[in-house]
Amino acid sequence: MRLSPRVWVGAALSAVAVVALAGCSGGSWEEKCSTNADQAIECAPEDRAPAPKVSGELLDGGQYDITQDRGQVVVVNFWGSWCPPCRAEADDLESTFAATRDQGVRFIGVNVQDSRDKAKAFEQSLGVTYPSLFDSGNRVALNFEIPPNSTPATIVLDRDGKIAAVFRKPVLQSMLQPVVARVAAEKPATGGAVTTPTSSDAGSPSAGSPSPVAR
């Protein structure tokens, strides 16, 4: 049976998802990691691969570069307004962010294959307070090898900018927060200082402060 172009592309993207993120280190780093009871991949510090570049324009028009959050644990969530599971997990992501931000944890969303207006309306309706990159061209998503059919996906980066955990499905607070807390409790291998948000950070994107731009 001959597959239609749409089915063929979907199958190809699914194949990419099987090896998602492997390209970040140019090898099979995931084979050194373990899968927990919630089907998340967790990597011991010595087995972690460096994360690719995460930077670009925020939904509100500002700029973000993940290097400004080096020394923090960074949770990167890929989402779209067209994605029902993204709506389902939004409250759990926001609750986890609120519960862990004082531990030196930042959240950054990556909005993929979307229009800016739809993305803003979607996030404003959910009241999420951390910022999002507007990745309409999938540049950041492709850097992480996250195809559209793998959305939502959530990646936890340690304080050294390495991939500590990967969720390739909608998350619940009960599965995400323990992983984030474990990574946040680690000391950075580089010896960098661990900082926590202060009142002076309130207006900065990296602080995840409340703004009209959600996630």
TrEMBL record:
Span of the signal peptide: 1-22
GO CC field: cell envelope
Family matches, as CDD domains: TlpA_like_family
GO biological process, one term: cytochrome complex assembly
Residue ranges, annotated region (Disordered): 186-215
Keyword Hydrolase on entry: no
Subcellular location, record wording: Cell envelope
Keyword annotations from UniProtKB, A to Z: Cytochrome c-type biogenesis, Disulfide bond, Isomerase, Redox-active center, Signal, Signal-anchor, Transmembrane
Coiled-coil intervals, chain numbering: none
PROSITE patterns given in the database record: PROKAR_LIPOPROTEIN, THIOREDOXIN_1, THIOREDOXIN_2
Name of the protein described by the UniProt record: Thiol-disulfide isomerase/thioredoxin
Originating organism: Micromonospora pisi
